[in-house]
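User: My advisor, Dr. K., asked me to get a structural model of this assembly before our group meeting. I'm new to this, so sorry if the format is off. These are the inputs:
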Amino acid sequence: MRRVPFWLWGVGGVGSTLLRLLAGESAGQRIRQRVGVEFVPVMLADSQGYLVEPAGLTPASVEQALAAKEGKGSIVNLPGARPATSASESLAGLRARMNLRGAIGVDATASDATAPALLDALEAGAGVVLSNKRPLTGPLAQFQALTRTRRLRHEATVGAGLPVISTLNGLLDSGDRITAIQGCFSGTLGYVCAALNRGESYSAAVLRAMEAGYAEPDPRDDLCGLDVARKALILSRLCGRALELSDLQVRPMIPARLDGLSKEEFLRRLPEADAEMADMVRQAAGRKQVLSYVADLSAPAPTGGLQSVDAAGPLGRLAGTDNIILFYTERYHDTPLSVQGPGAGRAVTASGILTDMITLAREELGHD
Amino acid sequence: MRRVPFWLWGVGGVGSTLLRLLAGESAGQRIRQRVGVEFVPVMLADSQGYLVEPAGLTPASVEQALAAKEGKGSIVNLPGARPATSASESLAGLRARMNLRGAIGVDATASDATAPALLDALEAGAGVVLSNKRPLTGPLAQFQALTRTRRLRHEATVGAGLPVISTLNGLLDSGDRITAIQGCFSGTLGYVCAALNRGESYSAAVLRAMEAGYAEPDPRDDLCGLDVARKALILSRLCGRALELSDLQVRPMIPARLDGLSKEEFLRRLPEADAEMADMVRQAAGRKQVLSYVADLSAPAPTGGLQSVDAAGPLGRLAGTDNIILFYTERYHDTPLSVQGPGAGRAVTASGILTDMITLAREELGHD
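Assistant: The format is fine. Below is the predicted structure of the whole assembly, which you can bring to the meeting.
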C-alpha cells in the first residue's frame, strides 16, 4: 500500500463527502484494495483556519472537523487549528512542515481567490484537483498557467462525476478534431425546463427547484446562466479557444421585467413571468418541441440560453436534473459521442474528484 | 519529445488506420504536440510474417506494408520480412533484438491465439493494448492473468472509441458499486432493429446491413449474438464476476427454423422469417414499444436478446448503428450514467487504441 498525502481546501458538502468516502469502510476500503493507494489527509482548511499534520490527521481529528462543519462551525475553533483566511496562507503553513512533491491538493471551495495557491502547489511538485470552476474561468492567462501541467485535473468542474473532461481530453490527445459541443450543463435549469414542459408554471417550477434543494439559495444564481457559462468556457478553452467569460453570449432564464430586484421582490413577483413562459412552451409544443436551456460551443462565441428543441432529440428527451454533453468531431460526425447522467450532487462530485486523485497517484507512482 | 516504441499484431482495417493516424500530418502531429510523445513502430506482424526494426521502421517501410495489406498481400513477402505464423513467434523475433520495457504491443487481430504472447510481453515489462476481444473472453484464468496488471488496456474491446471501459474502471476504482449494466453493444444488430421498427422486412434489413458493410461477411456472425456476449462477458468480468462465455444466456436474432443452414441457403430462405419478425414489431408497437437487441448484466447470468423496449426510453430511441451503455450504481441510482455513440468503425476503434497507448505512455513516463 502506497500512502499519498492530500489536503483539502473547502470542507463543505462536497469536501465532507470526499472525506467520508475515503474514511469509509465500503468505498475507502475498495479504493485501497483496487488501487493499492491510501490517501492520507494532511490538512483540512476552510475560510478561517486549518488543521495540519504531515504524518496524517487522525480519523478522530477528521471526524471532529466534519462534525464542526456540519454544525456550521469553523475549523479554526478546533483544538490545534491555526488561523488562515486564504488558501495561500494555509498552503504556506503546510509547506513549512512537509515537501509537497507527489502530494495532492483539492480545491473544493467556491472561491475566486485560490488560483495563486494552486499555482504554488503545482510549482512545488504537487498534483491539484478542482471541483471549483472559478480558478479556470478567470483571465485566460490564469487558465493557461494552471493547465500548463497535467498535474492539474478538474473532471468535477463540468458534469460532476460524469466523464466529460476526460472524454474531451481523450479526443483531443488522440488527434481528433472537435467540430461542435452542445449540451445541457445545469441540473437546476433542466429541472425547471422539465416542469415547464409538463405544464407547470414558471413560478411554481422555480419554487419547487428551491424546495427540492436543487437551486442555489438565491435561484437567480442558477437562472442567470452564469454557472452554465463557466462550464462552457472551460470546455471551450480546453479546445484551445482564446475566450474570456465576457465573450460568452448567455441569456438568463429570467424575464427582463424581473431583472434587478431584491431576492424577496423577485420571488414575490415570479408569477408575473408565468404567462410569457407558458406561451413559449405552447408555441414550442405546436412544433413538437420543448424548452431546454442549451449551451452551444460551435458558434464563434459560445452561447447559452432557453431554446425550443425537438422533443424526440437528445436534448429534448433529457430527464429530471440530468446533464448531457454531445461531442461532434472529425471521427464522430454523423451521430455524436454523448455522455449523460446526474451532473450535480455531493456524492457524484466527490466521485469526480476521487477519479482525478487516483489518476494523479497512478501517473506519479508509475507502473509495476 | 519522448519516443515510445510500439508494435502491431494485425495489419487489417483497424491496424492500418492506427498506422495512418500516427503517420499522418494532422492527427499524428497533434498527438506529438499535445502529448509530447512520438510512437515509433518497431514491428508489424500479420498471420504469416513480420517486419522488425528496433530503431523504428522507416515511413517508406510502413507505407509498403500498408500497400501490401490493402492489395490483400502478406507482410512476409516484403523485402526484409521474416516468417512467423504466431504472435509468440514474432514476439520472440522482437525480443531477440530489443528490451521491451516501456514499449507497447497492440493486438488488433481477431485471433484466439495471441494470449500467450500478450502474457510474455507483459512479463517483459511492456504495455499491451487490445482491440481484440478474444484473449479476454477465453477461460477466466486467462482473463485474470492478463488483467492482473494495469499495463494491459482494452478500451476498444467494447464500444470501440467510446469511453466505456475507462468509465467502468473509474467507477470501480473510486469505490462505487455497480448495481446493473444495460445496453446495446452491436451496431449491426442496432441497424437491423431500427429497420424492423421502421417497417422494413427482416430479410431486407439483414441484406441492407450486409450491403452497407455493417455486418460480417456471414451476417450470422453478428445475428447469433456472440459478439454481444463477448462484450457483456468482458464488462461482467471487470465487475469481478467469475463467469465463462458459456454462462451467458444469449438468444440469437435468427429464427430457429433458419438454424444450421449453409450461408447461401440461409440468405435464400431469409424471407421465411419476415412474417414472424413483423408480428413481433407489430405487437411491440401496440404497447408503444420497439424491438431492440439488449444486453443485461444485472441478472445472475448476463443475458442478451431481442426485447420489446419503451420507444421513448434510452434503448428504444437509439439511432442507426449507435451503441449505448447504461451504468446503474450506488451513486448513479435514479438515472444512470450513460455513454452513447458510434461503437464500431475503423477510425473510432483505432482512436480507442490510441487513447490507451497515450495513457500507458503517461503512466510509464510519469509527471514533469
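One thing worth pointing out at the meeting: The radius of gyration of chain A is 21 Å.

User: Perfect, thanks a lot.
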